[in-house]
C-alpha cells in the first residue's frame, strides 16, 4: 500500500464528504453557484474514469432555512421536521446540478443500524455498488428524519468513513471550513503548526483534535480524526481540505493546502473492516500485559488474560479491548455473553467447563473475529499459535 500522495485522478473510487456550512448559507439558503462548481469537479473526475460518491450534509440546515426556524439548537422533533423538508430540497439540488453534465444522482439515506448490523450493512453496500455500476453518483446522508440521539452518527465525517470502507474506496476527502490538521486549533493558538502528511494516527495526532467550529456543523476535528482511523485501517487514504473556494477538488489538484493521511500498509479484510468501524461497542474487556502482547502477535484473547468486563453484551456483539494503558487496542466479536465473560475472566481455559457447566470456547475473542485498532495494529496480521495461560 503506497505511503505517497497521488493526484485525485489516479484514485479508483473516491468518497467526498461535504459539510453543511459549505452548501448552505444561514440567511439565504442553498449556495447554488458553489454546488454547480463542485458538480463540475465531480464530472471531471468521472470523465477520467474515477467513481465518485458524495456524503452530503445540509438537509437540516437547508430545511430550517426553508421553514424559517430560529437560530440556535433545535429540539429533536424540529430537527427531524427540518430534515424531512431539507432532504427533498437537497436531493433536488444535487440532481439538477449533476444533470448539467448528464450525470444521474441517486439518493441513499442511512441510519446507524444500516452500517452497524451486518445484514443491513451488506444490503446497503449492494445498493451503492449497483448505483456505481450504472454510472450514477450516490448522494448519501444520514436519515435524520428517523434518527434519534441514541441511534445516530451525529456527524457525517464518520458516516463518510464507514461508507468509504463499505464500498472499498481508496480515497476519502473531507471538505469543511478548515484546510487540514494543525498541532492545535489555529483560531486559538497562533503558533499552531500545519501538518501536510500524517503517516499514522497516533495518540499524539488524536490529541491535536479540536471541537466544532460552526452552528451549522456538528462535526469538528475530533470526528475527522475518528474518520481517519476508520478509513486508513481499511487501506483508504484520507484528505482533509477546505471546501470554501469554488471548485474545491480542482484546488486540491492545483496544490491548495490540505492534510493527507496515509492508508495502512496492511489493511484488514472486509469483515474485519466492518468490525473495526463499529461506532458503539456493546462492552469492554480490559486485559493484562501478557494478553496485550499476545494480541499484538496475532493470537486470540483467552479468558486468563482478561482483568475486567464492563457493559451488557451478547455473544457475537462487537466489544472493545483495552490494554494496560486504558486505551483501546482492538475490537472483536464476543465469544461469550457478558455474564459468562465475567465468570470466566482471569481463569484458565481448562476451567471453563466447570465454571459454566458446559465446554465453552477456548477464546474470549477469537483472532479471526478481531482487528487491532491501536498503534502497531499492523502486527495483527500474523498467524501464530494461541498461547494458553
The side-by-side strand order for the widest beta sheet comes to: 5-6-4-1-7-11-12-10
Number of strands: 17
Give the oligomer, counting copies of the same chain as homo and different chains as hetero: single chain
Main beta sheet, described? 8 strands, mixed
Strand content: 15-25%
Q: What is the averaged pLDDT score?
A: 85
Distance between the termini: 36 Å
- Coarse shape: globular
Task: Provide the gyration radius in Å.
Answer: 22 Å
Number of discrete helical segments: 14
* Low-pLDDT residue spans: 211-219, 376-389
What percent of residues adopt helix (DSSP H or I)?
Answer: 25-40%
Helix-strand makeup class: alpha/beta
Spell out the blueprint of helices and strands.
Elements lengths: L12 E6 L1 H4 E2 L3 E2 L1 H16 L3 E6 L2 H8 L9 H24 L5 E6 L1 H5 L1 H16 L3 E6 L13 H11 L4 E6 L4 E2 L11 E2 L1 E2 L4 H5 L13 H13 L3 E6 L5 H6 L4 E4 L8 H7 L6 E5 L1 H8 L9 E6 L6 E5 L5 E6 L4 H7 L7 H5 L13 E3 L17
Parallel strand pairs: 1-4, 1-7, 4-6, 5-6, 7-11, 10-12, 13-15
Antiparallel strand pairs: 2-3, 8-9, 11-12, 13-14, 15-16, 16-17
Amino acid at each position: 500500500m503506497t505511503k505517497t500522495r497521488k493526484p485525485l485522478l489516479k484514485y479508483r473510487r473516491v468518497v467526498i464528504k461535504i459539510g453543511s456550512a459549505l452548501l448552505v448559507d444561514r440567511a439565504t439558503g442553498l449556495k447554488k453557484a458553489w454546488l454547480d462548481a463542485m458538480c463540475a469537479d465531480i464530472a471531471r473526475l468521472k470523465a477520467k474514469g474515477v467513481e465518485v460518491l458524495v456524503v452530503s450534509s445540509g438537509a437540516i440546515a437547508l430545511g430550517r432555512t426553508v421553514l424559517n426556524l430560529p437560530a440556535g439548537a433545535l429540539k429533536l422533533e424540529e430537527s427531524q421536521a427540518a430534515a424531512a423538508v431539507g432532504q427533498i430540497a437537497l436531493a433536488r439540488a444535487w440532481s439538477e446540478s449533476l444533470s448539467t453534465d448528464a450525470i444521474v444522482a441517486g439518493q441513499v439515506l442511512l441510519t446507524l443500524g444500516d452500517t452497524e448490523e451486518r445484514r443491513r450493512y451488506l444490503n446497503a453496500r449492494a445498493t451503492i455498488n449497483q448505483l456505481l455500476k450504472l454510472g450514477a453518483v450516490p448522494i448519501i446522508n444520514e436519515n435524520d428524519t428517523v434518527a434519534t440521539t441514541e441511534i445516530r452518527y451525529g456527524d457525517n465525517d464518520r458516516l463518510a468513513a464507514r461508507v468509504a470502507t463499505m464500498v472499498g474506496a481508496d480515497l476519502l476527502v473531507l471538505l469543511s471550513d478548515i484546510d487540514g490538521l494543525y498541532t492545535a486549533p489555529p483560531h486559538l493558538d497562533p503558533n499552531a503548526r500545519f501538518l501536510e502528511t500524517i503517516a499514522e494516527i497516533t495518540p499524539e495526532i488524536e490529541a491535536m483534535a479540536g471541537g466544532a467550529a460552526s452552528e451549522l456543523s456538528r462535526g469538528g476535528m475530533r470526528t475527522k480524526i475518528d474518520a481517519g482511523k476508520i478509513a486508513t485501517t481499511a487501506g483508504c487514504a484520507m484528505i482533509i481540505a477546505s471546501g470554501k473556494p469554488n471548485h474545491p477538488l480542482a484546488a486540491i489538484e492545483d496544490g491548495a493546502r490540505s492534510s493527507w493521511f496515509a492508508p495502512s500498509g496492511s489493511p484488514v479484510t472486509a469483515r474485519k473492516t466492518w468490525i473495526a468501524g463499529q461506532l458503539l461497542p456493546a462492552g469492554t474487556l480490559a486485559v493484562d500485559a501478557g494478553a496485550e502482547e499476545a494480541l499484538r502477535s496475532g493470537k486470540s484473547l483467552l479468558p486468563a488474560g482478561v482483568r475486567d468486563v464492563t457493559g451488557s453484551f451478547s455473544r457475537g456483539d462487537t466489544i472493545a479491548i483495552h490494554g494496560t494503558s486504558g486505551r483501546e487496542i482492538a475490537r472483536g466479536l464476543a465469544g461469550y455473553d457478558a455474564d459468562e465473560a465475567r465468570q470466566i475472566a482471569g481463569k484458565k481455559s481448562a476451567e471453563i467447563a466447570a465454571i459454566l457447566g458446559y465446554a465453552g470456547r477456548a477464546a474470549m475473542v477469537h483472532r479471526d473475529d478481531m482487528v487491532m485498532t491501536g498503534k502497531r495494529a499492523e502486527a495483527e496480521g500474523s498467524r501464530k499459535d494461541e498461547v494458553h495461560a
